[in-house]
Amino acid sequence: MECCGGNKLTEKQEKYYAPLQKILARYEKKERYLIPVLQEAQEEYGYLPEEILTNIASSLDLSLSQVYGVVTFYTQFHQEPRGKNIVRVCMGTACHVRGGDKVLTAIKDELGIESGETTKDLNFTLETVACIGACGLAPVIMINDSTHGRLTPEKVPEILSEFK
Amino acid sequence: MKDIIYRSHILICTGTGCTSSGAKKMRIALEDELAERNLNKEVKIIETGCHGFCEKGPIVVVYPEGVFYCEVKSEDIPELVEEHLLKGRIVERLLFKEPVTEENIPSYHDIQFYKKQERIVLSNCGKIDPENIDEYIALGGYEAVGKALSSMSQKDVIAEVKNSGLRGRGGGGFPTGLKWQFAHEAVSNKKYVICNADEGDPGAFMDRSLLEGDPHRVIEGMIIAGYAIGADEGYLYVRAEYPLAIKRLEKAISQAEDYGLLGDDLFSSGYNFKLHIKKGAGAFVCGEETALMASIEGKRGMPRPRPPYPANSGLWGKPTNINNVETYGNIPYIIKNGAEEYSKIGTENSKGTKVFALTGKINNTGLVEVPMGTTLREVIYDIGGGLGEGMKYKAVQTGGPSGGCITSEHLDLPIDYDSLLGVGAMMGSGGMVVMDDGTCMVDVARFFLNFTQSESCGKCTPCREGTKRMLEILERICEGEGEDGDIALLEDLAHHIKDTALCGLGQTAPNPVLSTLKYFRHEYEAHIFDHKCPAGVCKDLASAYLIDKETCVGCSICAKACPVDAITGTPKESYQIDDDICISCGVCASKCPVSAISQG
Ligand SMILES: Cc1cc2nc3c(=O)[nH]c(=O)nc-3n(C[C@H](O)[C@H](O)[C@H](O)COP(=O)(O)O)c2cc1C
Ligand code: FES
């Protein structure tokens, strides 16, 4: 298999790129598929390192700068490795009014990281988001795909311990 | 195989709210319990979408009696099955208790929260299994599209929507029928229909609940729009943060395709229509229609100047009609029941109902649908059950980061598009955040500016730089560094940004500041001139806490709770707080069993 400038890939590289090739095979070479491809690639690799972006750019016939522009525009895309568990703390209006920042402080203390950071053991990444859409249960956090509502700072250690 | 006739149906809400309160676990417990008692051939479990009453979740409704149970945990299941399903007795303990009268209310329709609502868009939410198209059809679903395609011309459909008086529910309130007419009149061999499900306003979850609870209604509305303007392809642009909504839409689309409701030659009319889902990638500005289309095209989601409007040059330069989720959700009702029937609901210039997400310091948080023209007082006190104990109403914030706040003097204002604009707020997409005495309005303004500033796409200078400067001033004020002249500077900047920003994001970003300045100027002044935050929210201005010696019982709970060890004393006697160490976090006051601690 050939990639990026026609250099032969080592076996190890081939294995590394195989899932990406599978994703790309399902889409036509069109600009409109860039975002879905990036989303699926990130799901597969956890984040979007440069070599993956280069590969996507050449496969979709786009310039790397264009791909880079899209990746940096949308908050969903990440270029650094991320934790196994993603903790998203809602900083939306409803959560703000009901003490979301106190919950955030408690989580920062518990994990020892600031928002936007990942723990050293790569277990947790902490993020703040604008609204999770579960405002009725404010304050709310999301750990991976599950939502936890009606939180107080006191409940934080117990919830996080499930993921340790 | 013969269909089993069940004697009871148990509806469990598995919307996002109830799921996070443990609905899935409870469902498994219920399944096990039914199997154990050999009831699984007599009682059927149905997962539904949101009932709107998220505060009291998980919610369970048992039919045919229609008994409404709330906050049902897996531990409650054995009793529920034993009592209700076997012995036919209602489990009083799990009924909803009216906050004022403390009365137990067994039936849905008698609960105050639902009584004053009029559910058109949400009529099926919580009643049907959103993953089963047959249930939507059984309640009259897809009749409207059948009627439109077999007995109405494109112009008839547009006229009907125009006469209904429906206005866009995505915030702007533009007449929907007129928008369709523009797209219809545009000449092109290819047109598109888009549903805006980017719902980015913090504090809003109407669209999410509708998509999770009744996805086919939105799809039906889109097919009708597509027919009216002559489009054969549509896109649903959904936030990536809404995985459940995406899953249910995918399922709904594939079911509609199987039933021939999407695809070629619908209802033998020769009309073709197909639908795709596009997942957003986390950018608030993509809710703006031109940015949204750029995002579907695979580009950075940046807005462009209008005109040209999407109706003439939209997705890939083709005529495009873009509407909000709730707007499409109104269409089937209008086509089925007629414009005349629909326009009986609402006020002179705002017809129909509006769904609001009621949140903040209120007893019954949740989703409510009321006729336009309902007063704020009815929404907050009759439906929302008022504020929590000991809290005093200060304002409600509507319209999210583009909106403003409404104070108690306007509580009796009938809510519609124009009345809200008149008092410096706006309908927006429907978020309503209730605030009490403990909310600092300067902090709220800072909060919204922080949001818009970080979501600004950076394309135009007024928004990119202007919101940043405004935020800096607000931050200074909240930190106690405000100066004489700051208020005038904020107002000046606000007006410039409103007049010159490229898109709606920048044009409306100063609204929360202007609106809080209009009604709560004294709070800004207290921060700047007296170095005080009247609500006690801004940490740098908050005074230290004090322990009242007389009331203190010396339990030592506060000292143990204090995160900075500012509290010392002798057990069983009394404790005191060291002003210099205290960070005014308030943990001690919240823990004190005898309420001896207050802010000095
Ligand atoms: C910054 C910004 C964000 C917006 N976000 C949304 C949104 O999340 N959902 C929505 O339906 N409309 C949103 N809009 C409004 C859309 O641009 C557009 O007016 C709307 O989708 C039209 O549909 P309607 O006529 O049915 O209301 C937003 C506008 C701006 C300026
Ligand atoms: S504001 Fe936090 S979930 Fe909406």
Q: What this model shows, in words?
A:
The complex is a heterodimer of chains A (164) and B (600). With 164 residues, chain A is an alpha+beta fold. Chain A has 2 domains: 2-73, Arc Repressor Mutant, subunit A (Orthogonal Bundle); 85-161, Glutaredoxin (3-Layer(aba) Sandwich), CATH 3.40.30. Chain A is built from 7 helices and 6 strands. Chain A has helices at 11-25, 34-45, 50-59, 64-73, 93-97, 100-111, 156-161; strands spanning 2-3, 7-8, 85-90, 124-129, 141-143, 146-148. In chain A, the strands form 2 sheets. Chain A has a 4-stranded mixed sheet, with helices on one face. In chain A, helix 3 (50-59) packs across helix 4. The mean pLDDT of chain A is 90. With 600 residues, chain B is of the alpha/beta class. Chain B has 5 domains: 8-115, Glutaredoxin, CATH 3.40.30.10; 133-343, NADH-ubiquinone oxidoreductase 51kDa subunit (Rossmann fold); 353-436, Ubiquitin-like (UB roll), CATH 3.10.20.600; 441-530, NADH-ubiquinone oxidoreductase 51kDa subunit, iron-sulphur binding domain (de novo design (two linked rop proteins)); 543-599, Alpha-Beta Plaits, CATH 3.30.70.20. In chain B, strands 9-10-8-7-11 form a 5-stranded mixed sheet. Chain B has a 5-stranded mixed sheet with strand order 13-12-16-14-15, with helices on both faces. The mean pLDDT of chain B is 92. At the A-B interface, helix 2, helix 4, helix 5 and strand 6 of A face helix 1, strand 12, strand 16 and helix 17 of B. The structure holds flavin mononucleotide and FE2/S2 (inorganic) cluster. Residues 90, 92-95, 131-135, 138, 140 of chain A line the site of FE2/S2 (inorganic) cluster. Flavin mononucleotide binds at residues 168-172, 174, 196, 198-200, 285, 287-289, 322-324, 327, 429, 503-505 of chain B.
